[in-house]
Amino acid sequence: MIASLKYEFNRANGASDKTGVTEMCLAIPGRIAGIRDGYAEIDYGGVFKQASLRLVKNARVGDYALVHAGFVIQLLDQEAGAELEKLIAETRG
Amino acid sequence: MEERITLAHGAGGEAYRELVQELFLPAYGNEMLEPLTDAAICSGSSVIAMTTDSFVVKPLFFPGGDLGRLCVSGTVNDLAVSGACPKYISVGMIIEAGFAMETLRRLVASIAATAREAGVSVVTGDTKVVEGGAADGIFINTAGIGVFLNGRKPLAQKIAPGDKIIITGYMASHGMAVLAARENMDFNPPIESDVAPLSALIDQVLQADSAINAMRDPTRGGVAATLFEWVTPETDIVIEEQSLPVRPDVAAACAILGMDPLYIANEGIVLLSVPARDAESVLRILQSVERGKHAAIIGEVREGGGSVYALTEYGTHRRIMMPRGELLPRIC
Amino acid sequence: MKTELEAMKKNIAGLAESLGQVTIMEVCGTHTASIRKYAIRELLPGNVKLVSGPGCPVCVTPEQDIAAAITLAEREEVVFACFGDMMRVPWGERSLYSLYERGKDIRIVTSPLDALRIAREHPGREVVYFGIGFETTAPLTAALIEAADECGMENLSVFCAHKTIPPAIMQLLKGGSSIAALLCPGHVATIIGAQAFAFVADELKLPAAVAGFEAYEIMAALLCLLQMLHRGERKCVNMYPRAVTEQGNRVALALLDQVFEPCDAIWRGLGEIEGSGLRIKERYRKFDAACKFKTVLGGVVDGAGEAPGCICARILRGQSIPTDCPHFGGACQPERPLGPCMASSEGSCAAYYRYGG
Predict the structure, then answer these.
(1) Mind listing the pLDDT tens digit for each residue in B255-287?
(2) B287: buried, middle or exposed (CB in 10 Å: 19+, 13-18, 0-12)?
(3) B103 and B180: one domain?
(4) Which of A1-5, B30-34, B193-197, B205-209 has the lowest mean pLDDT?
(5) Which domains, and CATH codes, for chain A?
(6) Which of B147, B181, B212 is the last residue in one of the domains?
(7) For chain C, what percent of residues have pLDDT higher than 90?
(8) B177 is a domain residue
């Protein structure tokens, strides 16, 4: 289970899926590959596009970001795959 | 020659003659065009395939191609998927006065190069010039004639239950490349179109004498539109979503713009419906050619009631609907 | 992942057996689309029903705002910038798309910042940006206004139709309804935080789960809701922890507060809801298209009226599903919609149409 969730998380972040990115609403996850003048260069599995960092603090190169209409709206918690797994386990009781 | 197209270039006089002699003939040159008669005289077969298509694209030049390459490939591919060997094309242009001669020169060079690549001759043509504002730069119409060689027959274009659906390469690349270029999407590296004449690729498959029930180039409306043209009231087509080949950069662009690659236009791939027993061998032939190396079996035809389904990666079924209207990028 | 999903499917079916009819509402257009895209209904037992609430920003934009947008877009001096989503929403015979087809200068943008670029490129024209969307999108418009202010743009304004989700949920469900639990919108929660939906459990006494958009994330949230129903619990659980925190995105919230203030707003299908809209604050008023074009917009009334027989209002309240509508798929189709739920690609009707009813 851990493995499959991790896989799913990586896949959603464009890491290992053959199509690179899974459509996840229109906030799309990508990896911050560079930062300059308030903008991040976002890597969506090999294709890059800029996004404004106006709405987040402390973004760092290597972070995974949720991007909506040209803005990073949140930095993704990379440990949260395990957290959701825990939540599902709790739900099952 | 002048630097810009003027109304005189379409008036049939000296300027027109100059355009033909200095631009078109050197680029397209062949013995059927050169007499500049009212109609080209060409040899053929008793059964011919004929098609025509008009091309309007913004921008005229986009990563991976341009209007010139597009207008030849589109017509050549329409002939090739009917089982014919494309031989001759016409090039008719409607140009807005004021159009830059240098841009026209580049387009003509691209037409000539693509025609050579496809093995077709530009045997006749026409040029009209309209006043500024009456057209958007340039519109091109091409018509094409293909012949049936070596006893080949036109494809029946009828799918049958049990057929496998094969795609010859990544889908949606052309449509997304043009959209990204038109809307200044600033992807880095830019998304490249795969627009190309596919006659050589298709010829490989036809040469092998495999049974092919239907073949189409999924242009406007994308792969989904072709599947809807194929499905009959007695069949269903089921597509395995995970097997659909999409280039990673194209997949990313589709996700960002909220667009489904199934509905995006293609100009560099073909869909085939092949009886199951021949599917693997057709796939191997396609994959042995550079342009076909990402070919894949994406689904199959079943007995059914006229629906197209996608089998999702979760094992659920989603009905695919007929594409309608222009696709608009969305954000919400 | 498929086996994991199978396990959740079994769990859900087991829990549902003891529950009778369960209706769960989602209030996010993207949830509606994901549920149909992954055909999640196939994974649910027959007595678990999903209905869509007012979660599509295009669909809930009232007719008078569409009328105002079209009126502005028709003006000679205006370059109108909006998301593709709004283009086909009809106002009588007209839509932004019909103006675009007739050659009006309407730009489909993919980020509010595109409007800033267009304004720079066309100093002699008036660029109007159509601000629609919920808390996910509103901070982006706020950033546009802030940037326009910082560089002293004179020819850019925003026609602001932004709305906030919690007051609409409150209004819709406060009097009691057939809804047993709520799937809360993940990306709205990214901005306003999971705690912003605590009222669903505390005041409306309904189980709530903030959900992501992948099939397994939606299934996990549904499982969580059914478990709460089974146990009789009423909590708000964050089932989208990789993007949502309890407090939300403080930077975005601060910017929202800097640029906007709450106002009453009209929702299509729901009527006026107190404090559910966002208005541009006094300090940035010169970027408010409603003020800048006050005289132009003064005469605009929603004269065209909604299409006869259109049941979008009932659909937005979760009282009907698209296939209940006599026009669905016939007179009303995505490329010539009668109502907003078909016009928006995220609308319930468009989702039903695209992914099958």
Answers:
(1) 888 889 999 999 999 999 999 999 999 999 999
(2) middle
(3) no
(4) A1-5
(5) 2-92 (2.30.30.140)
(6) B147
(7) 69
(8) yes
Question: How far apart, in whole angstroms, are the C-alpha atoms of residue C37 and residue C255?
Answer: 34
Domain locations in chain C?
A: 58-164+248-298, 313-355
- Token readout for A74 is 């949140």
Domain of residue B170: give its range. Answer: 164-320
ipTM for the complex shown: 0.89
Q: What is the DSSP letter of C204?
A: S
Can you tell me the mean pLDDT for C109-131? 96
Tokens found for residue B154: 């036109």
Chain B residues closer than 8 Å to C352 by CB? none
Question: Which among C1, C110, C216 has CB closest to A69?
Answer: C110
B331–C84 CB contact, under 8 Å? yes
Identify whether B331 is part of a domain.
Answer: no
**Which residues from C are below 8 Å from B257, CB to CB?**
110
Within-domain flag for B327 = no
How far is Cα C182 from Cα C189, in angstroms, rounded to an integer?
A: 13
According to the model, what pLDDT value does residue A8 have? 35
CATH code: domain of residue B238: 3.90.650.10
* Helices and strands in chain B: count of H runs, count of E runs: 9, 13
Whether B75 contacts B145, CB under 8 Å: no
- pLDDT, tens digit, 9 for 90 and up, residues C50-99: 988 888 888 889 889 999 999 999 999 999 999 988 898 888 889 999 99
CATH architecture of C58-164+248-298: 3-Layer(aba) Sandwich (3.40)
Whether residue B215 contacts residue B87, with contact meaning beta carbons closer than 8 Å, is answered with no
pLDDT of residue B12: 84
- CA of B10, closest CA in chain A: separation in Å? 44
**Rounded (10°) angle between helices B248-257 and B173-182:** 60
Q: Does A47 touch chain B (CB under 8 A)?
A: yes
C9-25 per-position pLDDT tens digit: 999 999 999 999 999 99
Of C110, C143, C217, the CB nearest to A55: C143
Tell me the residue type at A36.
Answer: R
Q: In whole angstroms, give the CA distance from residue B109 to residue A38.
A: 43
Domain membership of residue B325 (yes or no) is: no
At residue B109, what are phi and psi to the nearest 5 degrees? -60, -40
Residue B235 — φ and ψ, nearest 5°?
-130, 160
Q: Is A21 on the interface with B (CB under 8 A)?
A: yes
Tens-place pLDDT, residues B85-132: 999 999 999 999 999 999 999 999 999 999 999 999 999 999 999 999
Judge if B307 and B172 occupy the same domain.
Answer: yes
> Which residues, listed in sequence order, are joined to residue B137 by a DSSP beta bridge?
none
**In the listed set B99, B116, B147, which residue is the last one of a domain according to the structure?**
B147
Dihedral of alpha carbons B179, B181, B186, B192, sign:
positive
- Per residue in C181-190, pLDDT (tens digit) is 999 999 999 9
Contact B144, B118 (CB under 8 A): no
Asked if B179 and B211 sit in the same domain, the reply is yes
